[in-house]
Amino acid sequence: MQENDWIASDRFIEDHLIRSDEAQGETLRANAAAGLPKIDVSTAQGKFLHLLALSIGARKILEIGTLGGFSTVWLARALGPDGRIVTLEFDPKHAEVARANVAREGVAARVDLRVGAALDLLPKLRAEGFGPIDLAFIDADKENNANYFDWALEFSRPGGLIVVDNVIRAGAVADLANMDPMAVGSRALFDRVADSKRVTATALQTVGTKGWDGFLIARVN
Fold first, then answer.
1. Other beta carbons within 10 Å of 5
2. Burial of 211 (0-12, 13-18, 19+ CB in 10 A)
3. Given this model, what pLDDT does residue 159 score?
4. Are the C-beta atoms of 181 and 144 separated by less than 8 Å?
5. What is the CATH number of the domain that holds 38?
6. 17/150 Cα distance (integer angstroms)
7. Cα(42)–Cα(14) distance, rounded to whole angstroms?
């Protein structure tokens, strides 16, 4: 019953606070039709990311892990016409679906989608002089979260935000006996952030349509 209550509460939030014209129903349907894994952020979480970006006046964003572009669109909408989000996706099929979604939602001019392993693409961004960024959203392979955090920190301006998804993993992050690679990756991220004097950070647990998980949020000092 508890999980059903989480889902019902998420539906209540969406019905009251997220308009149908911003909910990206077509994006989610396109992702499902293409057989993409159902691992997008929830609709309420997508708007949370949107509000974070709006609140700091973001004009340049880095996203690591595009999937079908659901979170990409939420973030791109916050940028304004002169803003830019660089989003990195490993899977060419996912990238193809994301490009179509981004175009249909009318934000393609703000989105620079690059395909390949993020740890290969990030040094190329540095060589291009990319940055400073206002916000980074990390939602890719969890095993590399600590490495992605390091790159996001390198690109970030003082006062910028770094947000990492799926860090609680249904409590596995705190179970030191759990050696699942994604749980180990989450613990490595917490260790890296805790050791950094360049950020002030916390994490929030979440429940809802995505189950029990959470975000880590760091502000660059």
1. 11
2. middle
3. 98
4. no
5. 3.40.50.150
6. 34
7. 10
Nearest to 213 by CA among 146, 165, 162: 165
Domain enclosing residue 77, as ranges:
2-220
* C-alpha span between 123 and 127 (Å, rounded): 6
pLDDT at 47 over 90: yes
Q: Which two tokens stand for residue 54?
A: 């709006």
pLDDT digits (tens, 9 = 90+) for 89-148: 999 999 999 999 999 999 999 999 999 999 999 999 999 999 999 999 999 999 999 999
Sign (positive/negative) of CA torsion 31, 123, 63, 209? positive
Report the domain count for the chain. 1
Give Cβ neighbours of residue 153 (< 8 Å, ≥ 6 apart).
Answer: 162, 196, 198, 199, 218, 220
With pLDDT > 90 as the criterion, what percentage of the chain qualifies?
98
pLDDT given at position 80: 86
What pLDDT is attached to residue 1?
A: 64
Which tokens belong to 128? 């291009």
Q: pLDDT (tens digit, 9 = 90+) per residue, 162-183?
A: 999 999 999 999 999 999 999 9
Handedness of CA 62, 65, 71, 76 (dihedral sign): positive
